């Protein structure tokens, strides 16, 4: 929990969708009205203290939102303080400070207004801090989604592995990797690590709603388990059983869940211990709070935020970047990092799992993925990442490619054999993503 933790302590119940929205709307109206009345007052009386705005500072509304709520805002009629303007400003701030459409952490451009409202409302749900009295735990990793998914904006990844997770499990007995929780509520003990452990970074969630729309047929068309085209790449779709069905899976770095909604409902249970009816089985936990601990519509609020997060925008596309993309294609990086997948352009993934060889073998099975199988990491947003691979072990792209073995051995060898000039172009391309 860093910067944002205090924000969600406004005591919103998970079920309080309407009140949360209403607070925002009222806050917006009141703050807006305050400025309409405050500005002429300040002009009419030269004695009235004028807000000292540095040149080029943002609009008055933004300045107000940033102001510590206790500060006296010049020109405010005293009566407004009776309306608890401070508390209003606090409620308004998360929305006012939220990124705009298309920005990192903002909604996709061009959404209908209704979906926009759901997005910004869902952002509050994403930031909501749970307590033990509301079902947090009994063991858990953190208290809100944003506690881990915060970098470089709400909905992003972890700043470093400190915001990642540890999984453990008996080595290769057929059992799945299990989350190992860092924390426990009072009266409950943390699990001890059993068998092997592996670390997983917290990946950014930007654009995942688009990846959720890729039809199964598009992934299926790319599967090549027998390597019939002889390029060494044998990607397959993962699948997951639960609720009496076995369906193709695509979310998680091991592709261990069906779709975005089921995955994030599972994250609520697995990372926070907050049970709900949307995740795959099982659905209860061992604390004193009755299950399900979060109502269905709370999960749907979180889903509305994650689903509509804009994909990361590209950096400037120069001639070098274009030439670098050609090198990327020539080395057959695109054999896995597909520029186009069904209707989605620019994610640079095939959403298939690949055996990446011994260097990336965690020794832990997850769903159908073996220790060495990983879902092709989407490369959009790469320029916002400081380190690479599922446990951030690689400080540079070159090191990440030294770990590309198994099915990726040929393209990775070709990368290491590149002439200096071509390598520079390829890195320029990757740096534009
Ligand atoms: C303790 C840190 C932590 C918390 C809290 C957390 N996550 Fe995550 N999240 C992770 C990690 C680590 C992964 C990668 C898991 C994997 O690869 O299997 C992940 C993966 C995801 C993914 C899938 C990403 C992908 O590329 O397929 C989604 C979606 C997601 N989280 C949403 C959420 C939501 C919504 C919440 C709150 C209900 C949440 N997470 C809470 C750490 C966290
Ligand atoms: C056989 C499929 C495959 C091929 C071919 C392949 N990759 Fe990857 N790539 C992956 C997988 C899977 C991962 C994720 C591995 C992990 O997280 O441990 C990955 C991760 C990466 C990452 C790190 C992304 C991140 O989010 O940390 C970069 C950068 C990358 N690949 C670049 C390339 C380049 C450049 C090429 C061509 C030289 C290439 N890859 C070829 C499958 C492939």
Question: Which terms would index this structure?
Answer:
binds heme C; disordered N terminus; two-stranded antiparallel sheet; 9% strand; Cytochrome Bc1 Complex, Chain D, domain 2; globular; alpha+beta; 3 domains; single chain
Tell me what you see in this structure.
By secondary structure, the protein is α+β, with helices and mostly antiparallel strands. The protein is built from 13 helices and 11 strands. The longest helix has 28 residues, at 17-44. The two termini are 28 Å apart. The strands form 5 sheets. A 3-stranded antiparallel beta sheet has the order 3-2-5, with no helix packed on it. Strands 1-4 form a two-stranded antiparallel ribbon. A two-stranded antiparallel ribbon has the order 6-7. The structure holds heme C (HEC) (2 copies).
Note the topology:
Layout: H1 17-44, H2 60-66, H3 79-82, H4 85-96, H5 113-127, E1 139-140, E2 165-169, E3 178-180, E4 183-184, E5 196-200, H6 208-213, H7 216-220, E6 238-242, E7 245-249, H8 260-272, H9 296-307, H10 319-330, E8 340-341, E9 344-345, E10 353-355, E11 373-375, H11 397-402, H12 409-416, H13 420-430
Antiparallel strand pairs: 1-4, 2-3, 2-5, 6-7, 8-9, 10-11
Helix pairs in contact: 1-4, 2-4, 5-9, 8-9, 10-13
The protein binds heme C (HEC) (2 copies).
Q: Which strand-content bin applies to the residues?
A: 5-15%
Classification by helices and strands: alpha+beta
Total helices: the number is 13
From the alpha carbons, calculate the radius of gyration and give it in angstroms: 24 Å
Shape: globular
How far is the N terminus from the C terminus? 28 Å
The secondary-structure element order is HHHHHEEEEEHHEEHHHEEEEHHH
Q: What's the number of structural domains?
A: 3
Strands, count: 11
- Point out poorly predicted stretches: 1-20, 29-83
Q: What are the distinct ligands in this entry?
A: heme C
Mean pLDDT: 83
Task: Give the % helix.
Answer: 25-40%
Main sheet, how many strands, which sense, barrel?
Answer: 3 strands, antiparallel
């Amino acid at each position: 929990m860093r910067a944002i933790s205090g924000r969600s302590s406004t005591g919103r119940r998970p079920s309080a969708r309407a009140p949360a929205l209403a607070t925002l709307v009222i806050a917006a109206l009141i703050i807006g009205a305050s400025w309409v009345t405050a500005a002429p007052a300040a002009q009419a009386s030269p004695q009235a203290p004028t807000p000292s705005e540095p040149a080029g500072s943002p609009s008055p509304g933004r300045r107000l939102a940033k102001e510590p709520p206790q500060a006296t805002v010049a020109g405010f009629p005293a009566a407004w303080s009776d309306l608890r303007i401070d508390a209003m400003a606090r409620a308004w701030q998360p929305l006012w400070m939220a990124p705009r459409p298309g920005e990192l952490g903002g909604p996709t451009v061009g959404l209908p207004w209704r979906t926009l409202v759901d997005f910004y409302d869902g952002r509050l749900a994403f930031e909501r801090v749970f307590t033990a009295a509301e079902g947090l735990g009994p063991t858990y990793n953190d208290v809100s989604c944003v506690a881990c998914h915060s970098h470089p904006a709400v909905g992003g990844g972890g700043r470093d592995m400190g915001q990642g997770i540890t999984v453990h499990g008996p080595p290769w007995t057929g059992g799945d990797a299990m989350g190992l929780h860092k924390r426990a509520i009072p009266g409950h003990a943390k699990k001890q690590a059993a068998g092997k452990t592996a670390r997983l970074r917290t990946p950014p969630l930007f654009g995942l709603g688009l990846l959720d729309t890729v039809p199964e047929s598009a992934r299926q068309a790319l599967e090549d388990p027998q390597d019939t085209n002889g390029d060494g790449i044998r990607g397959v779709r993962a699948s997951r059983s639960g609720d009496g069905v076995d369906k193709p899976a695509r979310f998680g770095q091991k592709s261990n869940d069906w779709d975005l909604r089921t995955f994030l409902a599972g994250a609520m249970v697995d990372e926070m211990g907050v049970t709900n009816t949307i995740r795959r089985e099982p659905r209860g936990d061992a604390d004193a709070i009755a299950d399900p601990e979060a109502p269905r519509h709370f999960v749907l609020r979180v889903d509305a935020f994650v689903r509509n997060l804009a994909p990361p925008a590209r950096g400037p596309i120069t001639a070098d970047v274009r030439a670098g993309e050609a090198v990327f294609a020539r080395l057959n990086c695109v054999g896995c990092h597909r520029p186009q997948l069904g209707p989605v352009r620019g994610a640079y993934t095939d959403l298939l799992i690949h055996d990446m060889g011994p260097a990336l073998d965690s020794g832990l099975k997850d769903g159908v993925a073996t220790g060495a199988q990983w879902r092709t990491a989407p490369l959009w947003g790469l320029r916002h990442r400081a380190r690479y691979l599922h446990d951030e072990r690689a400080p540079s792209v070159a090191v990440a490619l030294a770990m590309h073995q198994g099915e990726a051995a040929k393209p990775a060898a070709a990368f290491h054999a590149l002439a200096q000039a071509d390598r520079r172009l390829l890195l320029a391309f990757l740096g534009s993503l």
